[in-house]
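Example 3.2
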Amino acid sequence: MNLNPSTPQPLYMQIRQMLKNDIQDGRYKPDEQIPTEAELCDTYSVSRITIRKAIEELVREGTLTRIPRRGTFVASNKFHNELLSVSGFSEFSHQLGMIPNSRILRSEVIPASGEVAGHLHIEEGSPVLELERLMYVDDRPLFYDIAHYSLTRFPDLEKKIAMKESTYKILSEDYNTEIVSNDKIIDVIGATKDYAKLLECDIGANLFRILKIAFDAKDEPVHLSTFMCETNRVNLTVHRAK
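Structure, written as tokens:
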């Protein structure tokens, strides 16, 4: 497909479609870096502004993704995360056939705020573990998570949390607690500078913000978590009740 300057369609839209065709045809594969703006300028003999507008369109629709300090890449195949699933990140990773990898950014014992206490059914000011983590797939962060656990219910949990240990496994083996259901509240926000740095995405990129309250078999809250992830990397699905 050659550029046609005589058509009403702007050049950047023509280049956008040409790049998209190349991706669909497999010339550029998922997670593969596309040529630089300068290289694309030479290929299509157009200005950098034109190339930039074409790339911005593809980033906006989720076909391409920018990774700060690395370049522009074809977006990953989206991970499908069952919205009603009760599995933790380790179990989710194993379902994908991948080895879970998470990094603890902060683990701190703090007094429960009114909001946290309300969700966990505990007294305001009682001790909770606040656990801040990044969860990786293929060496790139997929989820940023801030979780809260009652230390009155789970004493010494802060000492048991390990870098590569499943939290749900610890709850099951050490506290005889199984997660059987959860409630989720989901909205979409723009990535702040801090979130963009953590998730390796553009400032302002669309993020799912998922507030999750997990429950045990007695319908008692086990933990409160707030997840962040890029909307163009995860499909959240809901199965119809039978």
